[in-house]
From TrEMBL:
Signal peptide extent: 1-43
GO biological process: prenylated protein catabolic process; prenylcysteine catabolic process
Protein name per Swiss-Prot or TrEMBL: Prenylcysteine oxidase 1
Gene name for this UniProt entry: PCYOX1
Family: Belongs to the prenylcysteine oxidase family.
Organism expressing this protein natively: Geospiza fortis
């Protein structure tokens, strides 16, 4: 996702929450007292011995990291991955340099991602963004100038107070969303996606999930022209869909218009391999095909409940048993395609349609006359966004910097550079030669990119069975690296509390008010 920045509306950074509190150990007498008070069956429950995480994308690798943090050194962690670590975070090489092909842009207030990068000793590239324009299939309906100081009057002229009101509207949603960090810092978890979202934004968030971004913004008094020319292009570049997507994912998408966006130097997927290394999890290459509950009877002890996970490796079908399983890949026949055997009651199938987005990286010269500029010298845009017009075969076209670089610094695009095209379908040769007057290298990557959104949004459960958890349901609120990280931390906390029977840390109401007075 590459937002076009409305530079004039830069939002001031706010004090950041510290991501990790230092846990102060209890003094010994307090510990002894606690031990004496707790019924032994509760306090002496052993930790799990083996946990499986299905999927090594950002969700799965963050889950491994947080599971290690909660369950300690002795648990054995396996990450089962059918392809490459990183999942939807991946780079493509063009002319000897690497470019993000999947998830690319991180918001400055994505605190888990920020914490990972610091913890792993990685570096961040701040994205500078170049002047952008909105193309409607015939002409540019809005063009940013190369001189950012004239953008404010220009925006005001075009859209009145809509841009300013939008940034306040998004800010308000973001403020509520940020509550998740405080809840998680205090170890609170939620057993459903609905509860998690309700604990952040109450009925306001429920309403945002129930109606389209268009409806939500119309009700909030935004003009139709602004919705068509600014909001819609942002939805198209970020989610390949129009303003029918729900208000919540729509608002997330609009947050990408703010400044301070960044990405990981060397490629975002480095976070995944880094987290897995730091969690000391073992990566097992294989495709999970089925999961089945089992009960093992031990001599003299209570029966132990386990999950048998069967996976297909290069040497055939094999499997292992685990106390806890965390699924960190989108479920569905066309997605992870995992069969849940012999669950009582059975685990239902959740409808989970995904949107295809094709990333095309082109090293070439833009055909500026396609966009109505007969003189290529006059063309100054580094990002082209689009309105909803069925004639258009692209969603966006943006000038890219390699992952090792710190951005173009807002300079004018070079005559020949690397452009990233997002489209719903693969581009034909004819379409490519319309967009580019010449090109010498094309790399294509089709993705099942993010959910196909529609309001009202319904969520699959987080708890599929006693100790079987599912992260990617939260993607139905909004798909983003940070959302997967939040879901991962929630699942690790939830698994821990449920294993040890700590019900007081799960699904608490009014956390926002309670934590206010606690500090
Ligand atoms: C083109 C594009 C642009 C995007 N832009 C942004 C952006 O700018 N910013 C942002 O925050 N987000 C962006 N996103 C979304 C973001 O990339 C995803 O939300 C995020 O990467 C999802 O991570 P995940 O770990 O939950 O899922 P995935 O990355 O899909 O990981 C799931 C993993 O599970 C593996 N797997 C699946 N099934 C099985 C199985 N049966 N057995 C074993 N392994 C299995 C897969 O191989 C995969 O590695 C973008 C996505 C795309 C495609
Ligand atoms: C959202 O829609 C669901 C049904 O689709 C309804 O039960 C719920 O009351 C609605 N919530 C709000 C806040 O509109
Ligand atoms: C396992 O993988 C092999 C080779 O990739 C494939 O031929 C086979 O059908 C797979 N088996 C199952 C049960 O998915
Ligand atoms: C899902 O897996 C089953 C067997 O495990 C297989 O028969 C089926 O073809 C797979 N479906 C898809 C869409 O890959
Ligand atoms: C460039 O765009 C124009 C206008 O759409 C088109 O006629 C022409 O064929 C395109 N290609 C080249 C190489 O100029």
């Amino acid at each position: 996702m590459k937002g076009f920045k409305i530079k004039a509306l830069r939002i001031k950074g706010r004090p950041e929450l510290r991501s990790q509190p230092a846990h102060r150990p209890l003094p010994l007498p307090a510990l002894l007292l606690l031990a004496a008070l707790c019924p032994p069956a509760l306090s002496l429950r052993h930790g799990p011995s083996k946990i499986a995480v299905v999927g090594g994308g950002i969700g799965g690798s963050a889950a491994a990291y947080f599971l290690r943090q909660k369950f300690g050194r002795s648990v054995q962690l396996h990450v089962l991955e059918k392809a490459a670590l990183g999942g939807r975070l991946d780079t493509l090489d063009v002319e000897g340099a690497s470019y993000e092909a999947g998830g690319s842009v991180i918001h400055p207030l994505n605190l888990h991602m920020k914490h990972f990068v610091q913890e792993l000793g990685l570096l961040a590239n701040t994205l500078q963004g170049s002047p952008s324009g909105v193309y409607n299939g015939e002409e540019f309906v809005f063009e940013e100038s190369s001189w950012s100081f004239i953008n404010r009057p220009k925006l005001l002229w075009h859209y009145g107070l809509n841009p300013l009101r939008m940034s306040m509207w998004v800010e308000d949603i973001l403020d509520k969303f940020m509550r998740i960090y405080r809840y998680q810092m205090h170890d609170y978890a939620f057993s459903s996606n609905e509860r998690l979202l309700h604990a952040l934004g109450g009925d306001d968030f429920t309403r945002l999930l129930n109606q389209s971004i268009e409806e939500a913004m119309q009700k909030a008094g935004f003009s139709q022209k602004f919705i068509n020319q600014v909001v819609c292009p942002a939805m198209r570049v970020n989610y390949g869909q129009g303003v029918t997507i729900p208000g919540f994912v729509g608002a997330v998408s609009l947050a990408w218009l703010q400044s301070g966006l960044w990405s990981v130097k060397g490629g975002n997927k480095l976070v995944c391999s880094g987290l897995i290394y730091s969690s000391k999890a073992e990566v097992i290459p294989g495709t999970v095909v089925s999961i089945e509950p089992k009960t093992r009877h031990q001599r003299g002890g209570d029966p132990v409940k386990l999950y048998e996970v069967t996976y297909n490796t290069s040497s055939g079908l094999t499997g292992d048993t685990y106390d806890i399983v965390v699924i960190a890949a989108p479920l569905g026949r066309k997605m992870a395609n995992i069969t849940f055997r012999n669950f009582d009651p059975p685990i239902p199938e959740f409808p989970n349609p995904f949107q295809q987005t094709v990333t095309t990286l082109v090293h070439g010269r833009l055909n500026t006359s396609f966009f109505g500029y007969q003189d290529p010298q006059a063309f100054h845009l580094g990002a082209i966004f689009t309105t909803d017009n069925p004639k258009l075969f692209i969603n966006s076209l943006t000038l890219e910097s390699p992952v090792g670089d710190t951005g173009t610094g807002g300079e004018l695009p070079l005559p020949s550079a690397v452009w990233k095209v997002f489209s719903n379908e693969e581009l034909s040769k004819e379409q490519l030669s319309l967009l580019f007057s010449s090109y010498d290298s094309v790399k294509v990557k089709p993705w099942l990119a993010y959910p196909q959104y529609s309001a009202p949004e319904k969520f699959p459960p987080i708890v599929l069975h006693e100790q079987l958890y599912y992260l990617n349901g939260l993607e139905r609120a909004a798909s983003a690296m940070e959302m997967s990280a939040i879901a991962a931390r929630n699942a690790a906390l939830l698994a821990f509390h449920r294993w040890h029977g700590h019900s007081a840390s799960v699904d608490q109401e009014d956390l926002h008010e309670r934590l206010k007075t606690e500090l």
